[in-house]
Design a protein that fits this description.
Blueprint lengths: L2 E5 L8 H16 L3 E4 L5 H12 L4 E6 H4 L10 E5 L2 H11 L2 E4 L4 H15 L7 E4 L6 H12 L5 H4 L2 E4 L2 H9 L7 H8 L4
Parallel strand pairs: 1-2, 1-5, 2-3, 3-4, 5-6, 6-7
């Protein structure tokens, strides 16, 4: 995996452990030789993950919509800052540039990016690993809800299993490096035919 995309909050949150984990993840990725792709901001966890990668001399590519760049939210110290026209363009470019995805704590935007990437994986639009860095149990409720969706027949178990969960940067990278997507061909054929 040459580059890893990190989805995370533009806010720091109210738990200092989350900001520390973002910085640590960025530094770990750079030390392991992985480039970082992220939302391009200098604030919140976004700024922390970028600063962590930069502290170890890592490649950092930010992707930010022009509307946010105009509000002076872009990180001035990254390797490359790509300014796009919309959030949709931002998400597509982040996926195109990356070989895998990690979500850190965040809000609606983080979940939007995470679930769009998971949906594209489910539909075989890409075959790249998607993981949650579960800092201090932040994603426990979400993990339970994913299981709840599967138990209620809205998500196949093999799709639910595509969400990789670990609590350390080393653990999530190891899980991502051994990820093999499920064979979704038959499921997609049944979906097209209106079968469950």
């Amino acid at each position: 995996m040459s580059r890893i995309c990190v989805y995370c909050g533009s806010n720091p949150g109210n738990n200092p452990a989350h900001r520390a984990a973002a910085y640590e993840l960025g530094a770990f990725l750079a030390s392991a030789g992985h480039g970082l792709v992220y939302g391009g901001g200098h604030v919140g966890l976004m700024g922390a993950v970028a600063d962590g990668a930069l502290s170890k001399g890592g490649e950092v590519i930010g992707v930010i919509p022009k509307s946010l760049m105009d509000k002076e939210l872009g990180h001035g110290g990254v390797t490359e800052l790509r300014v796009v026209g919309s959030m949709h363009e931002r998400k597509q470019m982040m996926v195109d540039l990356s070989d895998g995805f990690i979500a850190l704590p965040g809000g609606f935007g983080t979940l939007d990016e995470l679930f769009e990437t998971l949906t594209w994986l489910q539909l075989a639009f890409h075959d790249k690993p998607v993981g949650l860095l579960n800092v201090g149990g932040f994603f426990d409720g979400l993990i339970d809800f994913i299981s709840h969706m599967s138990q209620n027949g809205f998500l196949k178990p093999e799709h639910a299993a595509c969400v990789l969960v670990q609590s350390t940067p080393a653990g999530i990278l190891e899980a991502m490096s051994s990820f093999r997507p499920p064979d979704l061909g038959k499921w997609i054929e049944k979906l097209a035919a209106g079968e469950r």
